[in-house]
Amino acid sequence: MQTIDSSKLIDHTALSRAAVSVVKRLCDNDYSAFIVGGAVRDLLLGKRPKDFDVATNATPEQVVALFRGSRIIGRRFQIVHVRMGREIIEVTTFRAHHDDGAPQTAIKSHKGLLLRDNVYGTLDQDAARRDLSINALYLDPVNQLILDDLGGLEDIRKRLVRIIGDSATRYSEDPVRMLRVVRFAAKLGFSIEESSQAAISKCRHLLADIPAARLFDETLKLFMAGFAAPTIEHLAKYELLELLFPETLSAMNDPSSRGLILTAMANTDARVARGKPVTPAFLLGALLWPAVTARGRDIASAGTHEGSPINAAGQIVITNTLQRVSIPKRFSIPMREIWELQSRLEKCSPKRVRSILSQRRFRAAFDLLLLRSESSDELKSTVTFWEEQQLLFPDVVGSLPAAEIPKRKRQPHRRKRN
Ligand code: ATP
Ligand code: MG
Predict the structure, then answer these.
(1) Catalytic, out of 53, 117, 149, 155
(2) Cross-strand partners of 87
(3) How far is ligand 2, taken at its centre, from the CA of residue 222, in Å?
(4) Torsions phi, psi for 370 (to 5 deg)
(5) Integer Cα distance of 120 and 67 in angstroms
(6) Minimal CB count within 10 Å: which of 72, 270, 358, 391?
(7) Residue 64 has what DSSP assignment?
(8) What's the whole-model pTM score?
(9) Rounded Cα–Cα distance for residues 358 and 234 (Å)
(10) Rounded to an integer, what distance in angstroms lies between the CA atom of residue 227 and that of residue 239?
(11) Which CATH number applies to 1-158?
(12) pLDDT per residue over 270-289, tens digit each?
């Protein structure tokens, strides 16, 4: 293992004190422990790490025995959450690749997918089973050293995202690694090393085997971290987007729909950069809106459907998306409300102004209208109308009580008249 002095490479004062204490206590108890993964990578790039992970040769049970208020979580990977003040440090035990260790603790599907992976190993083995070389750097904060066995430092210098080992094998073990490659390339502005790139086209179909719940978690990481615009461009380029959101396939090939989606992503990124809250409901609502309108048009022209074509289209788009990415109801319901409000906004009916302004989703729906108006002159006057109405009735906007669906007052029980 190559050992490099880290004192000139990273700002040690930017380290989490909690993470350093966890490492120190493990070392004081004769275990080895390092800060690892994203935190080391981000510090080397002069960025503020999102969180600090620790890797150690202590088993989860041994870690729990050392730290009060710690607990073991996870099934696929067992990790320990150590609470230190307000921080939670994730502590993982060095793991070996499934082939290096006790085979009975690593379970693989017939397609090579790793189903369970709790084989403990050495530091070298732990580095080799990580996804990317830039994520396999180990920092010893006490002696100020970085351990680099897989060329991670060199790849950081070259600004390169590189899968460790044979790309196709590593993607087959865990197809989500393809999404991670794209996410880090977009987030860091790095290029993707050639074979890591080439294997994606061979392995992309394997994402179909990943549970929809895990893909939803990954979707949030892809789109909510402040780099949604470059991420979606990469996802589209490597034909991964349609595996997550099949409904977006034709939208991304249509310039105005693509424009709407990219602007929605860029706006979200700008909000994240300003520390403003962002909601997956708006983001996914905008991402799927072109599909909803396309399906809505088909339904309207078939003329067989009762009620609003957009509502029916929204239902179909959500149902199809849920097959791949399990969007929880707390997001899919507001998405549908945002879609349904579009036609009500377009009608600009003076009688309905107050009722529409008071909808809880009015602001999000108006934001989607704004995005749509960028490629439609007709909608620009609709936007102006609603801008004026918001100025006229500022107190009404979004004022509908939390329940948002106006409930009918319960009538006192009346006896049936004969
Ligand atoms: P960030 O938290 O900034 O998104 P990170 O690199 O810390 O980036 P995590 O998802 O927190 O990413 O994972 C922590 C570390 O675990 C990674 O750096 C990587 O070494 C390893 N890892 C995570 N997911 C995988 C995976 N699917 N396959 C192999 N190693 C992984
Ligand atoms: Mg992390």
Answers:
(1) 53
(2) 84
(3) 14
(4) -60, -45
(5) 20
(6) 391
(7) H
(8) 0.89
(9) 38
(10) 18
(11) 3.30.460.10
(12) 999 999 989 999 999 999 99
